[in-house]
Amino acid sequence: MKRRMIVSSIVAWCWAIGTLCMSADLTVGTWKLNAAKSKYTPAEQARYETIKIEAVGDSMKVTLEGTDSAGKKVEAVWTGKYDGKDYPVTGSPDIDALVYKKVNDHNYQSSTKKGSKTLGSAKIVYSADGKTRTVTSRGTNAKGQKISATAVYEKQ
Asked: Which structural domain, as residue segments, surrounds residue 20?
């Protein structure tokens, strides 16, 4: 009986640690936009060609490299947790806060803010093999126009 409890405990700990490591590894990495598989409406809107996600202590650091809504090169940085709370964004003229919430190991939700106003929301889905990240977003740009996008990223 004692042996069965010890084996069960070891199996449970291995499963828990493996699950934690797998979920962290799923988002972490460098993601490159696959423009051929992506769609932006209207075509002239901010887009990020490279997204780098790294663990920093108990937080995540997300670096977004691409173009802002005016077509200028931008590098925006967000450091926070996947807990549904606002964390500041630096380097972007379009947004000043980003919210990430983990739904499960493969699904996340996010929203962008400027001041206290929510500009848009996104659903982020990681493929089962962890090689693809699809971001489906909707919102309003600085001109008040409705925008939407489906951006497909591939892990490098």
From this structure: 2-155
